[in-house]
Amino acid sequence: ANWAGQIWESFRPLGDDLQVGEFKQVECLGPMRSVVIAPQGSNLFCVGWDPAIPPDEAEETTRKVLAQWAC
Question: How many CB atoms lie within 10 A of CB 49?
Answer without folding.
Answer: 18
